[in-house]
Amino acid sequence: MQMLTLLQALSADAQRWRHGYDLMKQTGLLSGTLYPLLMRMTEQGLVEAEWREPARPGRPARHAYRLTASGLALARSSSTDWSALGLKVRPA
Prior knowledge:
about 90 residues, 3-stranded antiparallel beta sheet, 4 helices, globular
Protein backbone atom coordinates (compact mmCIF):
# COMPACT_ATOMS: atom_id res chain seq x y z
CA MET A 1 0.00 0.00 0.00
CA GLN A 2 2.80 2.44 0.88
CA MET A 3 4.65 1.61 -2.32
CA LEU A 4 1.49 2.34 -4.31
CA THR A 5 1.18 5.71 -2.59
CA LEU A 6 4.77 6.54 -3.46
CA LEU A 7 4.41 5.28 -7.05
CA GLN A 8 1.38 7.49 -7.52
CA ALA A 9 3.16 10.54 -6.14
CA LEU A 10 6.26 10.01 -8.29
CA SER A 11 4.28 9.22 -11.45
CA ALA A 12 2.30 12.48 -11.26
CA ASP A 13 5.35 14.22 -12.77
CA ALA A 14 7.65 11.34 -13.61
CA GLN A 15 10.49 13.36 -15.16
CA ARG A 16 10.82 15.74 -12.21
CA TRP A 17 13.45 15.03 -9.57
CA ARG A 18 11.89 15.04 -6.09
CA HIS A 19 13.42 15.39 -2.62
CA GLY A 20 12.39 13.06 0.17
CA TYR A 21 10.99 15.88 2.28
CA ASP A 22 8.65 16.91 -0.54
CA LEU A 23 7.54 13.30 -0.98
CA MET A 24 6.89 13.02 2.77
CA LYS A 25 4.66 16.11 2.66
CA GLN A 26 2.79 14.89 -0.42
CA THR A 27 2.24 11.28 0.66
CA GLY A 28 2.02 11.58 4.43
CA LEU A 29 4.63 8.80 4.77
CA LEU A 30 7.03 9.18 7.68
CA SER A 31 10.79 9.29 7.04
CA GLY A 32 11.27 5.86 8.67
CA THR A 33 8.94 4.42 6.04
CA LEU A 34 9.72 6.61 3.03
CA TYR A 35 13.52 6.36 2.88
CA PRO A 36 13.76 2.56 3.27
CA LEU A 37 11.04 2.25 0.62
CA LEU A 38 12.94 4.56 -1.74
CA MET A 39 16.11 2.51 -1.17
CA ARG A 40 14.31 -0.78 -1.95
CA MET A 41 12.68 0.72 -5.03
CA THR A 42 16.10 1.98 -6.18
CA GLU A 43 17.62 -1.49 -5.71
CA GLN A 44 14.72 -2.94 -7.74
CA GLY A 45 15.34 -0.48 -10.58
CA LEU A 46 12.03 1.35 -10.12
CA VAL A 47 13.51 4.61 -8.83
CA GLU A 48 16.77 6.40 -9.56
CA ALA A 49 18.53 8.56 -7.01
CA GLU A 50 21.26 11.15 -7.29
CA TRP A 51 22.99 13.64 -5.07
CA ARG A 52 21.98 17.24 -5.73
CA GLU A 53 24.10 20.21 -4.78
CA PRO A 54 22.31 22.74 -2.58
CA ALA A 55 20.44 25.62 -4.16
CA ARG A 56 21.86 27.97 -1.53
CA PRO A 57 25.43 28.03 -0.22
CA GLY A 58 25.91 26.56 3.22
CA ARG A 59 23.14 23.97 2.81
CA PRO A 60 23.94 20.25 2.60
CA ALA A 61 23.68 18.22 -0.59
CA ARG A 62 20.52 16.11 -0.77
CA HIS A 63 19.32 13.05 -2.62
CA ALA A 64 16.74 13.54 -5.33
CA TYR A 65 14.53 10.76 -6.69
CA ARG A 66 12.48 10.03 -9.79
CA LEU A 67 10.93 7.01 -11.45
CA THR A 68 12.90 4.97 -13.97
CA ALA A 69 11.23 3.77 -17.15
CA SER A 70 10.47 0.49 -15.33
CA GLY A 71 8.95 2.34 -12.39
CA LEU A 72 6.83 4.48 -14.66
CA ALA A 73 5.67 1.41 -16.59
CA LEU A 74 4.68 -0.26 -13.32
CA ALA A 75 2.80 2.83 -12.19
CA ARG A 76 1.00 3.12 -15.54
CA SER A 77 0.27 -0.58 -15.95
CA SER A 78 -1.40 -0.81 -12.59
CA SER A 79 -5.11 -1.13 -13.10
CA THR A 80 -5.57 -0.25 -9.46
CA ASP A 81 -8.17 2.36 -8.71
CA TRP A 82 -6.12 4.48 -6.30
CA SER A 83 -9.16 6.08 -4.68
CA ALA A 84 -10.78 2.69 -4.10
CA LEU A 85 -7.75 1.81 -1.99
CA GLY A 86 -8.36 4.91 0.09
CA LEU A 87 -5.07 6.49 -0.93
CA LYS A 88 -5.00 10.18 -0.23
CA VAL A 89 -2.07 11.82 -1.91
CA ARG A 90 -1.90 15.56 -1.58
CA PRO A 91 -1.22 17.53 -4.79
CA ALA A 92 2.41 18.57 -5.26
